[in-house]
Amino acid sequence: MGAEVGIRPAAGPEGNGRPPASGAHHTRSGPPLRAGGGAGGASGRLRPRLESPHSLETPGGTVERTLQYLETVEHETGASPQWCVLWLHGLGADGHDFAPIVPELVAREWPAIRFVFPHAPVRPVTINNGMRMRAWYDIAGMDFATRADSAGIVESIAQVEALIAREAERGIPAERVLLAGFSQGGAITLAAGLRRERPLAGLIGLSTYLPGAERLAGFATEASKRQPVFMAHGSGDPVIPIVHSENSARALRDAGYDVQWHRYPMAHQVCAEEIADLRTWMGQRFAAAE
């Protein structure tokens, strides 16, 4: 498989995104991040939770209470970012989990990017005996057709939409936002992106699947089909078997989406080859916008 970066071992039904205590596979750590290839210093800071100025409606329902912006970890690869990558972590992890991917992913010629890594809310997860952890939605069981908590998904979509709206207020419009996610975060990425009336620059779903893929026609917007999709999965994933990713990609293609799908000889994790393929795909998005 080659060098592995940011290994995401399984823990429970969708993995916690954290490194094992010992062994050869680990998540990168070390000094403050710098953008790979000399793209400029990646500034890292914690943005506190703030109240959203208005409640948000989603195609799946209305979140009645006033939302608060999720707390986020941010890294900027240069001054005055022109693009945003909003990246959602997996079950039980947090916004710091994928921050080390920035120097591995960024290319020298890219425009300045703001990477935003939000922390999911802490909630009880049924399949993990009700243990409280960071999760984008509850998981009731192992049946992929019924396991997802639809109310939790609707709420997380609204929270993601609030962050996208905040980026617009900070000068980065939706068409320059890439929405990405790993595992459970990838499920929210796809669920949110396909419901949008104003397309994003693209969707990135790693080691994930689309909840309700069999009902895609009932919630996907026509405008969302203008968003290219990058999906990648490990052939030996014991947490989300690869067939669920394959079925999701097939459903998207059949519905008219431009999907680039990759498989790698790995488990529930991220590898160097995957990052290289994602770098190429992201570079195409930046070039297309020029």
Automatic annotation (TrEMBL):
<dbReference type="InterPro" id="IPR029058">
    <property type="entry name" value="AB_hydrolase_fold"/>
</dbReference>
<keyword id="KW-0378">Hydrolase</keyword>
<protein>
    <submittedName>
        <fullName>Carboxylesterase</fullName>
    </submittedName>
</protein>
<dbReference type="InterPro" id="IPR003140">
    <property type="entry name" value="PLipase/COase/thioEstase"/>
</dbReference>
<feature type="domain" description="Phospholipase/carboxylesterase/thioesterase">
    <location>
        <begin position="81"/>
        <end position="281"/>
    </location>
</feature>
<dbReference type="InterPro" id="IPR050565">
    <property type="entry name" value="LYPA1-2/EST-like"/>
</dbReference>
<comment type="similarity">
    <text>Belongs to the AB hydrolase superfamily. AB hydrolase 2 family.</text>
</comment>
<dbReference type="GO" id="GO:0016787">
    <property type="term" value="F:hydrolase activity"/>
</dbReference>
<dbReference type="Pfam" id="PF02230">
    <property type="entry name" value="Abhydrolase_2"/>
</dbReference>
<feature type="region of interest" description="Disordered">
    <location>
        <begin position="1"/>
        <end position="63"/>
    </location>
</feature>
